[in-house]
Structures are given as structure tokens and as C-alpha cells.
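FAQ: What does the model actually see?

It sees only this:
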Amino acid sequence: MARLLFLGRLEDLAGGPERALPLTAPTALADILAGLPADLAAALSGPRVRLARNGALVAPEGLVLAEGDELAFLPPVSGG
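And it is asked to produce this:
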């Protein structure tokens, strides 16, 4: 089982702060996104969304999740 975490406005799009993701083998990010609703997958794939795998920022290219991993989707931050 892996966990997907959604922060900020992405939590609203996902319908909650996290989802459990059953994995039987290491799975590419593209395959994970393909299993999500299209509007959520599009938002998570945005160029300004950052990813953190197990607490460390990572690039989406070539990202593979395995059993026990946690992947957080971090939206762009603004404020003032």
C-alpha cells in the first residue's frame, strides 16, 4: 500500500487529504495518474505542482512508487 497526499487546493479536487493506493508491484507515476479522475490527474500533472516522495522533493520524470511509499502533491504557494 502506498499513500497519496494532497495539499492545499489539490485536497479539494481530490475530495480529501489522502488516498490509499494498493500496489502489487512498483508503479510508474503515469500509471497512477491514469487511474485517477481526469480532472484530478490533470491538476496533479500541472507544471507548477511539486512532488515529495517520502519527504524529499523529486522530479516527476521516471518516478516509480513502491509498497510503503508516500507521495505528496504540493500546489503552487501564493500569498502576501
